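User: Need the bound-state model for fe (iii) ion:
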Amino acid sequence: MKTLLIITSFIVLGGYLISQVSKQSQKSKGKMGTKQEAKKTYEVQKSEDEWKKILTPEQYYVIRKKGTERAFTGEYSNNHEKGVYLCAACGQELFSSDHKFESGTGWPSFWEPVKKENVEAEEDNSLFMRRTEALCSRCGAHLGHVFDDGPKPTGLRYCINSVSLKFAKKKD
Ligand code: FE
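Assistant: Bound-state model below.
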């Protein structure tokens, strides 16, 4: 009897999860559709094959497929050196060590970009969350997400994948 109850619970829960997932994917399909209609043309344009040649598989997964590196595994989450962080795909200056802070999340975090126009923000409703995606404005590289729980003066937290960045150390 107990087993039957457990099995029934699993079936009900499973059915619910599947219906939620399909709802979400329909939603994101709609989003992608609208996105595609108004597809942005970036200054740096490359075919997916060309990107694959330039980027490492991990970079390609994060930058082009909007993936996320595992927390605390990235090269720069614990980097305290002075310098600038460039886009790993096109080299545009994105962030400065002057605006980096310890967020404790395991991803390099900044309260603002080097120049506001260098980092674009776009609504992202994937993975059951309403988030704001951060992209390189020159090539459209996925960088990470922006949250509004950052420190002063902006109150923003740019949570960025190390793999989307290339650090250029400041010369003394
Ligand atoms: Fe870029």
